[in-house]
């Protein structure tokens, strides 16, 4: 499809070829291999969506911008290219902002492109259609924010957005495109020349040799070393190097949630099932693409035990060092380069960690795995979490290349521990904020970007945030199987209101049938009341690739308040019974 606009009334031979903002944005995206847009159409970007689709860009229309934004953010994580989210002005833009902030917080590259109203009117606050100073509002929530006013600057504008999103620590970028820009016409040849193909958008960042030496010296001094892999390590796609480092070092490793599968959870060095022991008892901890934030109890306190600890940290962001505790050996660079340098330094000069340590970790792990095993095999009806998750664990074991999307409270915390992952970047979940609502956006982008089947394991409350996107899943016929863990409410479905007839704040309609929702759009709905029924339904869905929603009936009393993070949820000591 030609991106060139011909003027109609004049003889084409006399008139120089022209292009416009619409076409230049499309050309700039394609030139940079950005071939998928997640968004919601409307003023002023409706025609843009149509034209982009006609030009061969995959344009996925969602029912709400937040879900489109989450899709773009996880597309960025999966591909290392910025995920593109396209929204209309003011309200659509605001709906997309949650996802932009989420991308920035999680270090996922994403570009939120929003149409906006005219600068002249916005700046004088004269009340334009959907008037809002979007650039100013986006700024604190992203790595960088840009506005393009002239068609001739579209190429540069997109190039800056791409570089900002993927270089260094990745993150969200906002690109503001006022309505008038789309129709601006310019000479086609000059337009072509104005476009920029971004070369080496995320340049390697090589660690300083001294930093590598220092880190190896600390690691060698350890009696009880531990390596923690974070989602930065998964993002880096340096899978072979990371695996070699772990195996060559012989050090136990602990994967953070989205780093699970970088090496299989069943790997003999995996300490996932001995988490509390290794955090407490280790003496040297090397973090690879993981931050010492709340998810790691800030590197101090009870979780980390009494013994003095030394931290080595590999990260692309120098400011991350010493964010919570002292880092005795910072290694700043991209993970691929840093891990390669460490491997080189270890070559022919490495002794495995003391076997009393590795042996203790292995014993603890085996003990915990054995304790859990019988609970995963129960066939209770209504189901409890372990019975239901035991089934899903086997589904993933038999289909290790399927992608698991997971959100909820108990549904998240228990699935994270129970479902083993075998391949990198197959587990996508709530991330740094523990956010609810990523489910359907992530599931859609995972299916689109990878072509693999997706299993979305959703708490009933979590599912509600993005549930309408089951229509999107059916419309694009995506191989997504959603399992709603339906326990009638948030945390549990058993709360009662002691003061009136309204339901308690944490409960939903009893016996709700989420499976009926997908049937409305032609998908397959199943009501599963036992682990056996659940197993049959999930296997059928994964084999057929048909959009499926399984309402998994759980005991309303099965969950616990706030899942595993009840300590973060303040409770009144004064409340009346
Ligand atoms: P987790 O939640 O799994 O612990 P975080 O999101 O907290 O992971 O941390 C990821 C870290 O990885 C961030 O500090 C980020 O700067 C870093 N990071 C992301 N990509 C790279 C990369 N390619 N090379 C090095 N560090 C990276
Ligand atoms: Mg629930």
Give your account of this protein's structure:
- The protein has three domains: 15-194, Thiamin diphosphate (ThDP)-binding fold, Pyr/PP domains (Rossmann fold, 3-Layer(aba) Sandwich), CATH 3.40.50.970; 209-363, TPP-binding domain (Rossmann fold, 3-Layer(aba) Sandwich); 377-562, Rossmann fold.
- Helix 17 (410-418) links the parallel strand 14 and strand 15.
- Helix 3 (65-79) packs parallel to helix 4 and helix 3 crosses helix 18.
- By secondary structure, it is an alpha/beta fold.
- It has a six-stranded parallel sheet with strand order 3-2-4-5-7-6, with helices on both faces.
- The chain is globular, with a radius of gyration of 25 Å.
- The protein has 22 helices and 19 strands.
- The structure holds adenosine-5'-diphosphate and magnesium ion.
- Magnesium ion is lined by residues 459-461, 487, 489-490.
Assign an overall shape. Answer: globular
Q: How many structural domains can be distinguished in the coordinates?
A: 3
| Mean pLDDT over all positions | 96
Q: Major β-sheet, in short?
A: 6 strands, parallel
Question: What is the topology, as strand order, of the major beta sheet?
Answer: 3-2-4-5-7-6
| Secondary-structure class | alpha/beta
Determine the fraction of residues in helical runs and give it as a percent range.
Answer: 25-40%
Name the bound molecules.
adenosine-5'-diphosphate, magnesium ion
Number of strands: 19
CATH class of the largest domain: Alpha Beta
- The number of helical elements comes to 22
CATH superfamily heading of the largest domain = Thiamin diphosphate (ThDP)-binding fold, Pyr/PP domains
Distance between the termini: 69 Å
Beta-strand content estimate: 15-25%
Output the CATH topology of the largest domain.
Rossmann fold
């Amino acid at each position: 499809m030609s991106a060139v606009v011909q003027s109609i009334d004049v003889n084409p031979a006399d008139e120089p070829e022209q292009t416009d903002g619409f076409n230049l944005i499309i050309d700039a995206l394609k030139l940079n291999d950005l071939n998928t847009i997640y968004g919601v159409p409307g003023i002023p970007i409706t025609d843009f969506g149509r034209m982009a689709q006609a030009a061969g860009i995959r344009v996925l229309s969602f029912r709400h911008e937040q879900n489109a934004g989450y899709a773009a953010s996880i597309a960025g994580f999966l591909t290392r290219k910025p995920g593109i989210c396209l929204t209309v002005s003011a309200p659509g833009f605001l709906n997309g902002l949650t996802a932009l902030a989420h991308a920035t917080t999680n270090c996922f590259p994403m570009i939120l492109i929003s149409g906006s109203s005219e600068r002249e009117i916005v700046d004088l606050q004269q009340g334009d259609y959907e008037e809002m100073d979007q650039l100013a509002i986006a700024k604190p929530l992203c790595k960088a924010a840009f506005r393009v006013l002239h068609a001739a600057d579209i190429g540069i504008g997109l190039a800056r957005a791409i570089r900002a999103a993927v270089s260094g620590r990745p993150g969200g970028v906002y690109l503001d495109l006022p309505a008038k820009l789309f129709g601006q016409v310019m000479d086609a040849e000059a337009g072509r020349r104005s476009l920029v193909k971004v070369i080496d958008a995320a340049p390697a960042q090589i660690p300083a040799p001294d930093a590598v030496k220092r880190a190896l010296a600390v690691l060698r001094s350890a009696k009880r070393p531990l390596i923690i892999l974070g989602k930065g390590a998964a993002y880096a796609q340096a899978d072979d190097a990371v695996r070699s480092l772990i195996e060559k070092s012989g050090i136990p490793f602990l994967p953070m949630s989205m780093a699970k599968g970088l090496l299989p959870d069943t790997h003999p060095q995996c300490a996932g099932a001995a988490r509390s022991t290794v955090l407490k008892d280790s003496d040297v901890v090397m973090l690879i693409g993981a931050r010492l934030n709340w998810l790691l109890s800030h590197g101090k306190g009870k979780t980390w035990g009494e013994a003095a600890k030394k931290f080595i940290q590999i990260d692309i962001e120098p400011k991350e060092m010493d964010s919570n505790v002292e880092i005795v050996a910072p290694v700043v660079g991209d993970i691929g380069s840093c891990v390669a340098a460490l491997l080189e330094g270890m070559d022919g000069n490495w002794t495995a960690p003391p076997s009393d340590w590795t042996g203790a970790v292995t014993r603890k792990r085996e003990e915990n795995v054995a304790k859990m095993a019988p609970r995963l095999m129960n066939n209770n009806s209504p189901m409890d979490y372990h019975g239901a998750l035991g089934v899903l664990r086997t589904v993933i074991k038999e289909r290790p290349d399927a992608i698991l999307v997971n959100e909820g409270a108990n549904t998240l915390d228990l699935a994270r521990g129970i479902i083993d992952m075998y391949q990198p970047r197959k587990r996508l979940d709530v991330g740094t904020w523990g956010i609810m609502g990523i489910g359907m956006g992530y599931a859609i982008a995972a299916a689109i970007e990878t072509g693999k089947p997706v299993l979305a394991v959703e708490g009933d409350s979590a599912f509600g945030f993005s549930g309408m996107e089951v229509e999107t899943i059916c419309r694009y016929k995506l191989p997504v199987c959603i399992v709603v863990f339906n326990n009638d409410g948030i945390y549990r479905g058993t709360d009662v209101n002691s003061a009136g007839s309204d339901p308690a704040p944490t409960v939903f309609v009893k016996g709700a049938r989420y499976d009926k929702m997908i049937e409305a759009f032609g998908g397959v709905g199943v009501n599963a009341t036992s682990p056996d029924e659940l197993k049959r339904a999930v296997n059928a869905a994964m084999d057929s690739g048909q959009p499926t929603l399984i309402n998994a009936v759980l005991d309303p009393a099965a969950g616990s308040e706030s899942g595993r993070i009840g300590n973060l949820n303040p409770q009144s000591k004064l409340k009346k019974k």
